[in-house]
Design a protein that fits this description.
The complex is a heterodimer. Helix content of chain A is about 0%, strand content about 55%. By secondary structure, chain A is an all-beta fold. In chain B, the strands form two sheets. In chain B, strands 2, 4, 5, 6, 9, 10 and 11 form a seven-stranded mixed sheet that branches. In chain B, strand 5 and strand 6 form a beta hairpin. The N and C termini of chain B lie far apart (about 35 Å). The chains are: A mainly beta, B mainly beta. Chains A and B meet through strand 4, strand 5, strand 9 and strand 10 of A and strand 4, strand 5, strand 9 and strand 10 of B.
Chain lengths: ~110, ~110
């Protein structure tokens, strides 16, 4: 079973526009993480937000977390063609368990 | 130069053969993971290990086996019992509760 469910499955925008991606999950979490994957490569960690945080920024990335709705969003501002990739959310469970569960991902295409 | 490596990058297997995928990390991470990625399926967890000599099944462990004899190494064996092994395999490692670092992946094809 996959804990995180991203939405939309695919997103196509023009360079310079903002991209918003959403993630919903089912059970209590310790943290939620966002990753990026370029085609045929390994994943690269973008940002981690803990369950007691509501918003976090890193460069052009803004992540929000709403634990009451069990959802998170990733905003990429002023998108660039180089942002074209797949984006995944992953949840880290509560307790001592290190199990990290991913969603199916969102394919983002940024048109130059 | 710290990181996580996987080998080989491409692997071809005949039906009925077992193959072992290598994963090594020098990040001193306690946890290590194996994921399988199929088109449109995202990442599915095969096995994970939180400490040496211990590992747990993930969501799709059938047909796979692992060992964790050293902190740095977490090899994955794809056995002949795995009926559809053609996929992209990703290894990752992390400290507890923190972000994961991924290797470049191994693409396995069954001939």
């Amino acid at each position: 079973s996959q804990q995180g469910e991203e939405d939309p499955q695919a997103l196509s925008i023009q360079e310079g526009e903002n991209a918003t991606m959403n993630c919903s999950y089912k059970t209590s979490i310790n943290n939620l993480q966002w990753y990026r994957q370029n085609s045929g490569r390994g994943l690269v960690h973008l940002i981690l937000i803990r369950s007691n945080e509501r918003e976090k920024h890193s460069g052009r990335l803004r992540v929000t977390l709403d634990t009451s709705k069990k959802s998170s969003s990733l905003l990429i501002t002023a998108s660039r063609a180089a942002d074209t990739a797949s984006y995944f959310c992953a949840t880290g469970p509560t307790g001592a368990n290190s199990k990290l569960t991913f969603g199916k991902g969102i394919t983002l295409s940024v048109r130059p | 130069d710290g990181g996580i490596t996987q080998s080989p990058k491409y692997l071809f297997r005949k039906e009925g053969q077992n193959v072992t995928l290598s994963c090594e990390q020098n990040l001193n991470h306690d946890a290590m993971y194996w994921y399988r990625q199929d088109p449109g399926q995202g990442l599915r967890l095969i096995y994970y290990s939180q400490i040496v000599n211990d590992f747990q099944k993930g969501d799709i462990a059938e047909g796979y086996s692992v060992s964790r004899e050293k902190k740095e190494s977490f090899p994955l064996t794809v056995t002949s019992a795995q009926k559809n092994p053609t996929a992209f395999y990703l290894c990752a490692s992390s400290l507890p509760g923190l972000e994961a670092y991924f290797g470049p992946g191994t693409r396995l094809t069954v001939l």
